[in-house]
Amino acid sequence: MTRCHNSEVVLDKRAENREKALRELQHLEVLLLDGHFDYGNGYHGRCYINPHALFRHPSTIWRFAQDLLDLLPTDLLQSAEIVVGPATGGALLAHTIAGLLDSRRALTHPASSFAPVHIDKDGFSIRPYYVQQIKGKRVLLADDVRNTGQTLATCAQLVKEAGGTVIGTMEIYDRLESTAEIGVPNFALAEYRAPENYKAAACPLCARKVPITRF
After folding, report:
1. What global pTM score does this model have?
2. Which of 46, 117, 125, 159 is the most exposed place for a label (fewest CB within 10 A)?
């Protein structure tokens, strides 16, 4: 009974932390819920996570990364060897998490590593130097936001091709609309089901001439 009670306390604490993070993301104007945003993929919508606001103060991302690590089971914390994230937001988060992992493990534990996924006009790739770092390693994938989950799935495939093994994924904010699962545990600091997205050609916000928010 005690074990069951302790599990309920942990679940309640995690739910409380998620609600707190959601409020803080809105307060810091990182999570914007009532705008008109062009997502750059042929869709528009009212909800957007502003990475510029998230990463402008390093102390903010450090605090969110600490809270995100609190959600991870001990076995993942101890076994992860390298943290990988897509540029730019995911890479900054992954770099921070890799450093914070070392503060939660014994001094004799091998230091965590970091590797970015490069994005350019040709798509996603991992540079040869980092491919060598990933080979044979247990990998955590990190991104600032999970929309459809396709970015994390693409990164997972690149890690696999580099010879690494993805053991978990994580993000600051999950829109709860993922359609691409990669078969490992996923952890989100904040969860919020976003309003419907619209194809750009049929966007009601455009029809009402609501200006698109620019950063």
Report:
1. 0.84
2. 125
